[in-house]
Amino acid sequence: MRLAISHTTRYTFSTPVAHGLQRLRLTPLACRGQSAEFWEIELEGARPEVSYDDENGNRVTLISFVPGAREVVIRGQGVVQTADNAGVMGKQPGHLPLWHFTEQTALTRGGPRVRALVDALPEEAEDVLARLHALSALVREAVAYESGHTDVATSAEQVLAAGRGVCQDQAHVFIAAARLLGVPARYASGYLMMDDRVEQDAGHAWAQAHVPGLGWVGFDIANAICPDARYVHLATGCDYTACAPITGIRYGARDEAMHVSLAVEQQRMEQ
């Protein structure tokens, strides 16, 4: 599938910015099942400083704000070729050992609610892949998809206590439970082409787990499927904090407003 993507983040500041740095993970991964025909990051009110691959193999671009800027615009856009591998990514570039993805983080630390979820797994799900599919279904039942109740700092335990959240929260619960099972698991961020619309409010997130003989396999709990050709992978990491699309700091502006626009659509080949 050939997917055209345009993702714009616009910051408007109440007073001029004295200094600002941001770390962008907005470049699609070079991995099994996808390759970028072309990709570019355009900036207004900011300039690129350096690009590098982080410990997870994500492409990171560091930018700085132009001193005195009242508005900063970050636009990632391009065309990505994708294929349906039933969610199997196999081996992915990176410098971290598998055991690193069995360690809990503040967002994925398993408490009594996560342990109860693991204990509820059906006994007939014996092999790793079957248990992970069963776990995905349990998380979907335990965490209803509803926005406005969580934020980027909400932990897996807090999500289960609330019983609702978004794709990010469902991914964190799945990761926490998989790690309690001794399965390496990680967070994935990216884009999903929707069947009913082009314009979207935000990017997408799902989980990945490492299965013997297959490598990394994706599980999109929100949509109850493994990622297919409609998905574009941007970054992976232990949790959201390791692969957030944009993070940074600024000084000098009292208040800011942020607006995000995203469009993902299939691009047909001309005959």
From TrEMBL:
Domain of life of the source: Bacteria
Which Pfam families does the record associate with it? Bact_transglu_N, Transglut_core
Q: Where is the Transglutaminase-like domain?
A: 159-223
Q: Which PANTHER family match?
A: BLR5614 PROTEIN-RELATED, SLL1049 PROTEIN
Q: What is this protein called?
A: Transglutaminase-like putative cysteine protease
